[in-house]
Amino acid sequence: MEQVTSIDEEYIFEGSSIISQTDLHGIITYANRKFCDISGYGISELVGKSHNVIKHPLMPSIVFEKMWQTISSGHTWSGLIKNMRKDGRFYWVDTEILPILDADGKLTGYIASRRAPSRKSVKESDEIYKEIYSNSRFLNVNL
User: What is the pTM of this model?
Assistant: First the structure.
């Protein structure tokens, strides 16, 4: 897949939820139409790819480390994430990720539901994430 270049332009969306499902390694196994519409990718470009395909380069890695710690232990995680569309524009999502368990209670994957966040939440998260990202670069630490 071609590398996308980030541009500093926000894509704001409204309406129904963005839904995706992944395996235990974050490989997309399902994406609803809204996910495709918002991300700018077709279903065939998403399924079988890592969820990192939409990761914005300025999202602090520590956020994803904490997310993976939480969901891989079988718990639900929620938070705001800044993603990047295929055209390089960014968009914010209020995200909830739940574990998928089989009949025996074994973890088999994850399902995520995302919706448009409040502008207040975006402003607060953006400030926090910029500070985390800036400090991690200053300290030359890969968070």
Answer: 0.88
